[in-house]
Amino acid sequence: MDMLNTSSVLNSELNNEPAVQVLQHIILSIIVWTSFYKSQELILPTKSAEFRCRIVSLWHGVIVTVLAYYSQFVEGPSIFYIEPG
Length: 85
Hints:
Elements: H1 6-10, H2 19-43, H3 49-75
């Protein structure tokens, strides 16, 4: 059996983005969602913080679901059509 060495893991397709880019994407995502939450304070000033948090969570769920549908059924082959084994 071949042992998994570190160089093959580091050169795999899963790790092709540098850590700096990943960190930038995380920071950008935090800024976008925080800005969306803060904009809710201007749009819905009478609603509670919990309500605004639920609105942001709802939009996050909708966006993730749409992107998952797109990547699964439009962009690439579905894992449900692959033969087992």
